[in-house]
Design goal:
By secondary structure, this protein is of the alpha+beta class. The strands form four sheets. It has a seven-stranded antiparallel sheet. Strands 12-13-14-18-17-16-15 form a seven-stranded antiparallel sheet, sandwiched between helices. The chain has a two-stranded antiparallel ribbon with strand order 1-2. Helices cover 21% and strands 43% of the residues. The protein is elongated. The chain has two domains: 3-150, Protein Transport Mog1p, Chain A, CATH 3.40.1000; 160-308, Protein Transport Mog1p, Chain A, CATH 3.40.1000.
Length: 313
């Protein structure tokens, strides 16, 4: 990772990724299979907005930009008489973004200014709108916008989707869908499903407090006891990236479960047979990281791949 990348914060959601200054953080997120919206704030104001929408077929990029700017103008009713638009400002280029259909814009009011871009990604058939906002007195806002918008990715890479928020970064196969998220100061946890398979990844803060009077394995049994109880997992102390770690595995075979698994295989559906997971304590960040999965026998190696794709320090 470059020094510039280290000085920035990675945010990722549903195939959209972006690098922003360290003092910006995810403030709002909503997404489904057809569209999504992300807002990133600093301590004082909204700094970045990204919208994306599925758009198979032809997209009139100029019409899309004009419609968006009309929406922005309406949102600034108090400044609408001072609302000015500049369509000649070059924020990013088609070559830079590797998009054939792209347009840029800028707008200004007495209270705010913004630089943005709209493009169509034919690889994933969606239109993306992004703008970086600031105060009129910010002379370097254009440069910031160029850096931020040029860092935006709009689809999974090599079959993996990056999910990143508040410094927690993980990657999950693109055909898994997010079903639940918990995002608090001391806990971030994401849950995903693919047919009958599940993935849970999480990060707990204040590890020194959590592990003050217990081992990592004891904490794991206490924290995830309800989730793991049906599988009677066996755990082994190990090392991961030089950190104290626990590897655990378990199976659930209640009455008729074997028949159910056989039936699922007959109709060509995955049949999760085993719980596999890892937990480790990263002393450098004072955090505990956990990944646990319920996978079909053909996909057991995915647990290791998920673990290896979680960044801890």
């Amino acid at each position: 990772m470059s020094d510039n990348a280290k000085s920035q914060r990675l945010i990722g959601w549903a195939g959209i990724t972006v690098r922003v200054p360290q003092d910006w953080a995810l403030a709002s997120i909503s997404a489904d299979e057809k569209e999504g919206y992300m807002r990133v704030d600093d301590r004082d104001m909204a700094r970045l907005e990204i919208k994306w929408v599925a758009s198979p077929g032809f997209v009139d990029i100029e019409k899309t930009v004009n419609k968006y700017l009309q929406t922005v103008k309406k949102a600034h009713k108090s400044d609408e008489h001072q609302f000015s638009v500049d369509r000649d400002t070059r924020v990013v280029s088609k070559r830079q973004m590797q998009k054939d259909n792209l347009a840029t814009f800028a707008w200004h009011t007495q209270q705010h200014q913004a630089y943005g871009a709209v493009w169509v990604c034919k690889q994933c058939d969606q239109t993306v709108i992004a703008q970086v906002l600031g105060r009129p007195e910010e002379k370097d806002l254009l440069q910031t916008a160029q850096q931020v918008i040029s860092s935006i990715g709009d689809h999974p890479i090599d079959g993996w989707t990056t999910w990143a928020a508040y410094g927690f970064v993980c990657q999950v196969p693109e055909d898994f869908s997010i079903t639940k998220q918990q995002m608090y100061s001391a806990l971030l946890k994401f849950s995903f499903t693919r047919d009958t398979e599940t993935i849970d990844v999480g990060r707990w803060g204040m590890a020194d407090t959590l592990l003050r009077d217990q081992t990592l394995d004891q904490w794991l049994q206490q924290e995830l006891g309800k989730e793991l109880s049906h599988y009677k997992p066996q755990s082994d102390e190990t090392q991961f990236r030089g950190h104290e770690a626990v590897a655990f595995a378990g199976t659930r075979m209640p009455p008729l479960q074997g028949i159910k698994q056989f039936a699922l295989h007959v109709i060509g559906r995955r049949s999760p047979q085993k719980l596999l997971g890892y937990a480790w304590h990263c002393e450098a960040t004072n955090k505990i990281f956990v990944v646990h999965t319920l996978l079909d026998a053909a996909n057991y190696e995915l647990a290791d791949q998920l673990r290896d794709r979680i960044e801890c320090h």
